[in-house]
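Hi all, a correction to my earlier message: I attached the wrong file for TfoX C-terminal domain-containing protein. Here's the right sequence:
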Amino acid sequence: MDDELLGMKNLGKTSVQWLHAAGIHTIADLRRLGAIQAYRAVQVRGFRASKALLYSLEGALSNRPWSELSQEYKDSLDTELRNACPGAIGER
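and the right structure:
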């Protein structure tokens, strides 16, 4: 099976399986939701995703390795996640 999500930077078999389980099947689906909402969709389905998934999704959407995201940028994603979902899972 050819899966376009597997062709994106940072996304491996497990993360893609989680995305599929969350109803995200294409790059267009991921772009439409964005990293924050896609991360939350995975968590809501009970997967114990760490913040590395959030950063990997953001890196995939910007076509760069997640490790190249600056700490400041990661902090801004964390803040955006907290603001989008107060009291939510994801404080790992």
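Sorry for the mix-up. Helices lie at 13-21, 27-44, 51-61, 71-84.
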